[in-house]
Design brief:
This protein is α/β, with parallel strands linked by helices. It folds into 2 domains: about 80 residues; about 350 residues, Peroxisomal Thiolase, Chain A, domain 1, CATH 3.40.47.10. Helices cover about 45% and strands about 15% of the residues. The protein contains 17 helices and 11 strands. The strands form 2 sheets. The protein has a 9-stranded mixed β-sheet with strand order 3-2-4-5-1-6-11-10-9, sandwiched between helices. It has a two-stranded antiparallel sheet with strand order 7-8. The termini are far apart. It is an enzyme of class 2 (transferase). InterPro entries: 3-ktacl-CoA_syn (IPR012392), ACP_syn_III_C (IPR013747), FAE1_typ3_polyketide_synth (IPR013601), Thiolase-like (IPR016039). Its EC number is 2.3.1.-. Keywords: Acyltransferase, Membrane, Transferase, Transmembrane, Transmembrane helix.
Length: about 500
């Protein structure tokens, strides 16, 4: 305890010393610039200023510039970096065999029409034969047990944190911020408290649990971690854990729009370590854009947890989900485009908007909104693997190639919709295929209930030397033709 307290004080003392050094260096450089400028313009000053003007007035003339410069250097937000991340790779015991899954539906007392509908959805979903579910969801009768849900949470969360700490050699007592996001399952104590207890985090660690924020909550958690890190001493670290616990959330009713979640969602999770220190960092976080369309009733209710007519709880997915996701994406792009696109693409987009307004009364003109070439600004796209229809819609909207959406399709095929952690599986796919290069930009786009579209732009500093454990044993089989339907 004493050694930790000394280390903790040393950390803050070090930050104070660094601030003093920066201030002293800034004052020295600024003073040198002032003196040099005075020397250069001495001849002009002799004719402009009175010969009796004291030299101290020259210093006062540049004092506002000095104050503004120092204030900017001290108050500007710190850059946040991604040290590393780890994804959960379930073992083969949790694989969902399509034929066994169909038999599970029959034993769940569903009628033949419903079973036929669900098997058709499964074949077209884009999911492969190695996606994973907790055992309790794979075999009837479905058991709603908090003990089993906590067991799933501990297995997923502790595994990814252990992998992350092994990758980074990070120590638990160096974690300053802990943020966990899980939408469907809450428990007392929270999952954040569960991590604090397991890894014996410090008593002053700021921990938060985000619930009900949907599949885009991972980027919300990253944004929150960034904001907190920027208020703390240089070198502080934030641990972000994103997961979705499925035990106890299997819908056993007969409402078709609520049965879709059983087909799409699968086990998964990711742990991310962020810091304001560039040391050992692998990515730089450049921008985060958050947009919510929840003010519209249709958007608010398009992914909605409620009870069906028989009182059975489930998640209802609206038939307008893809269209609402498209509207949320457009709202996000409106804000993200100026910080993502190069000037040439921004100019073309602006001229296109002007052309649309000029020719709006001329129906025969047929002017269409220009779709920017995002590929000219971003090397890698990580689009939330919410389902094949969602990925297809984003590909059409952004005019992306099959190669650019490959990480999303392969992640959906191998792991299914792992909710907020899917974006990290996609980044891990890019690195496992060894296509990530220093300086490459990665654009993460997440969708979630509410309805929200959040995006984050990263810049690669150091690509991974080896594949993340989630992809290590199967990356050699990808990419593959995922248009072939799975036999059920």
């Amino acid at each position: 305890m004493c050694s930790w307290w000394q280390g903790h004080n040393i950390k803050y003392l070090s930050q104070l010393v660094n601030n003093c050094i920066i201030f002293a260096a800034t004052m020295t450089v600024t003073t040198a610039v002032i003196l040099k400028a005075t020397q250069i313009y001495q001849y002009w000053l002799l004719f402009t200023w009175s010969a009796t003007t004291p030299p101290i007035y020259l210093v006062w003339a540049f004092l506002p510039i000095t104050v503004i410069t120092v204030k900017y250097l001290i108050q500007r937000p710190s850059t946040v970096y991604l040290v590393d991340y780890a994804c959960f790779g379930p073992n083969s015991n949790f694989h969902v065999d399509p034929s066994s899954w169909a038999e599970t539906l029959r034993l769940s007392f569903l009628d033949d029409d419903t079973i036929s509908f669900l098997t058709k959805v499964f074949r077209r979903s884009g999911l492969g034969s190695e996606t994973c579910l907790p055992c309790v969801n794979s075999y009837p009768p479905q058991t709603h047990s908090l003990r089993l849900a906590r067991g799933e949470a501990e297995m997923v969360i502790f595994t990814v944190i252990d992998d992350l700490f092994a990758k980074t050699s990070a120590k638990a007592h160096n974690i300053d911020i802990l943020i966990v996001n899980c939408s469907l399952t809450t428990m007392i104590p929270s999952m954040a408290d569960m991590i604090v207890n397991r890894y014996k985090l410090r008593s002053d660690t700021r921990n938060v649990h985000l619930s009900g924020m949907g599949c885009s909550a991972g980027l919300i958690a990253v944004g929150l971690a960034r904001n907190l890190l920027q208020t703390m001493p240089h070198g502080s670290r934030a641990l972000v854990v994103s997961t979705e616990i499925l035990t106890g959330n299997f819908y056993v009713g007969k409402e078709r729009s609520m049965q879709l979640a059983n087909v799409l969602f699968r086990m998964g999770g990711a742990a991310v370590l962020l810091s304001t220190s560039r040391d050992d960092a692998r990515f730089e976080l450049t921008h985060i854009v958050r947009k919510s369309t929840g003010a519209q009733d249709s958007a608010y209710r398009c992914v909605f947890q409620e009870e069906d007519g028989e009182g059975i709880l489930g998640i209802k997915l609206s038939k307008d989900l893809v269209a609402i996701a498209g509207a949320a994406l457009r709202a996000n792009i409106t804000t993200a485009a100026p910080v993502v696109l190069p000037f040439s693409e921004q100019l073309l987009l602006f001229l296109s908007s002007i052309a649309q307004k000029v020719f709006i009364i001329r129906k025969s003109a047929g002017t269409k909104q220009y779709v920017p070439n995002f590929g000219s600004a971003v090397e890698h796209f990580c689009i939330h693997a919410g389902g094949r229809a969602v990925v297809d819609a984003v590909q059409r909207s952004l005019k992306l190639s099959d190669e650019q959406v490959e990480p999303s399709r392969m992640t959906l095929h191998r792991f299914g919709n792992t909710s907020s952690s899917s974006l990290w599986y996609e980044m891990a796919y890019c690195e496992a295929k060894q296509v990530m290069r220093e300086g490459d930009r990665v654009w993460m786009i997440g969708f979630g209930s509410g309805y929200k579209c959040n995006s984050a732009l990263w810049k690669c500093i150091l690509p991974a030397r080896s594949a993340d454990s989630a992809w290590a044993n199967c990356i050699h089989r990808y990419p593959m033709d995922v248009t072939k339907q799975v036999s059920v």
